[in-house]
């Protein structure tokens, strides 16, 4: 009997319950307590991030970013089409006009030259997504926003401990967001974080985070009452979520070492497949690293990709496609100025993601590799 290999299996380090119990003993369950601060400190110290704010999801962190940047109706926001819907929704919710830039020909990341073409006097922000934890060309992108008032946001949902040259992803944009959803390398079930790398935005970020009030300042004893000062929402996760996340962060190196080893195993084993012109492996530019978050292949056609998914299913292996290009999505296709983005559509049509998770056993990975190779040898 063949064992089912899921696409993802959330990893538990075994320590989560201890940290959650400790949070119980500390007697504060709502947000912005001991473990929230521990998580913030972890990221600020390890990666030199600006001020960090844990959120209840990566989606929430994006929505917080859009409020913080004061995105108004009619403002233009440039973003990739090949991304998760939350990257777009956060800005659409504030009435922004979304301009979708095509992906690079080399990998699903946004093409800086395509961004350049979309800049107008109304451009308020550019959002880049480092797909699969592989850095976008940040030198070219930072060059585009230099000497302008355009804000740069890194959607670093996939990017814990990933780098552009020596710079940690999440430290380059004015703002950055991370996701700790259970599909991510480090998770708290649902969870996310906003990173504020611009000092002048920090104070307001805390207010937006705290439902538009200065409650955090009140609890620090800096003001004698707290009031409604701005737009905001309930973006804080509970201390229980933060404690769970902190337990995972304590095991970051071990978790990423294992994932990178699995990623490299796929990469090495599919070299011949790529050389034979059958399917492409992820392209890793010299300035980028892999954090082992996600391994994908690009098939030659959509039919081939779908057949491969079906074939793997018959072998009890769950492989999946990825994002549907947003410029042709049911919600935005009539609103989108961009009607055809060849590279983004190409990735939507041809990407297949293979199982990659901490508890994937070597023999199961071997079975996945053999199955893909058998498919192509037929
Ligand atoms: C690129 C990207 N941005 C944002 C998000 C949203 O993160 P969350 O699921 O934590 O809301 C995701 C989710 O997978 C994502 O892939």
CATH superfamily of the largest domain: Type I PLP-dependent aspartate aminotransferase-like (Major domain)
**Level-2 CATH architecture of the largest domain:** 3-Layer(aba) Sandwich
Number of strands: 11
Rounded to the nearest angstrom, the distance between the terminal CA atoms is: 23 Å
Number of domains: 2
Strand and helix order? HHEHEHEHEHEEEEEHHHHHEHHEH
Helices, by number, come to 14
Report the sheet-strand fraction. 5-15%
- Average of pLDDT: 98
The CATH topology name of the largest domain reads: Aspartate Aminotransferase, domain 2
Biggest sheet architecture: 7 strands, mixed
| Sequence stretches where pLDDT stays below 50 over 5 or more residues | none
* Assembly context of the chains: single chain
Bound molecules: pyridoxal-5'-phosphate
CATH secondary-structure class of the largest domain: Alpha Beta
Provide the structure class: alpha/beta
Shape: globular
The neighbouring-strand order within the major sheet is: 1-9-8-5-4-2-3
Residues in helix, %: 25-40%
Q: In angstroms, what is the radius of gyration?
A: 21 Å
């Amino acid at each position: 009997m063949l064992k089912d290999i899921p696409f993802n299996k959330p990893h538990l380090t075994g320590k989560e319950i201890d940290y959650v119990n400790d949070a119980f003993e500390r007697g504060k369950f709502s947000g912005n307590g001991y473990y929230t601060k521990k998580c913030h400190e972890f990221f600020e110290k390890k990666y030199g991030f600006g001020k960090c704010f844990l959120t209840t999801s990566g989606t929430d962190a994006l929505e917080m970013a859009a409020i913080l940047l004061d995105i108004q109706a009619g403002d233009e926001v440039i973003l990739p089409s090949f991304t998760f819907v939350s990257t777009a929704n956060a800005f659409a919710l504030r009435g922004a006009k979304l301009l979708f830039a095509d992906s690079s020909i080399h990998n699903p990341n946004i093409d800086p030259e395509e961004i350049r073409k979309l800049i107008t006097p109304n451009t308020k922000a550019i959002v880049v997504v480092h797909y699969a934890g592989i850095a976008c060309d940040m030198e070219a992108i930072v060059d585009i926003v230099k000497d302008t008032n355009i804000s740069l946001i890194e959607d670093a949902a996939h990017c814990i401990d990933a780098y552009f040259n020596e710079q940690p992803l999440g430290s380059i944009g004015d703002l950055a967001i991370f996701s700790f959803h259970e599909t991510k390398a480090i998770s708290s079930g649902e969870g996310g974080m906003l990173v504020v790398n611009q000092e002048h935005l920090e104070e307001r970020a805390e207010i937006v985070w705290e439902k538009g009030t200065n409650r955090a300042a009140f609890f620090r004893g800096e003001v004698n009452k707290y009031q409604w000062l701005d737009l905001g929402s309930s973006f804080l996760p509970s201390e229980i979520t933060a404690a769970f996340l902190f337990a995972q962060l304590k095991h970051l190196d071990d978790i990423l070492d294992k994932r990178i080893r699995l990623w490299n195993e796929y990469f090495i084993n599919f070299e011949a497949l790529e050389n034979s012109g059958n399917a492409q492996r992820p392209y890793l530019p010299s300035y980028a690293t892999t954090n082992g978050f996600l391994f994908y292949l690009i098939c030659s056609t959509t039919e081939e990709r779908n057949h491969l998914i079906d074939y793997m299913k018959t072998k009890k292996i769950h492989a999946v496609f990825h994002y549907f290009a947003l410029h042709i999505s049911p919600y935005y296709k009539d609103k989108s100025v961009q009607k055809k983005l060849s590279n983004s559509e190409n990735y939507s049509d041809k990407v297949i993601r293979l199982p990659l998770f901490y508890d994937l056993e070597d023999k199961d990975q071997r079975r996945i590799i053999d199955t893909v190779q058998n498919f192509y040898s037929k």
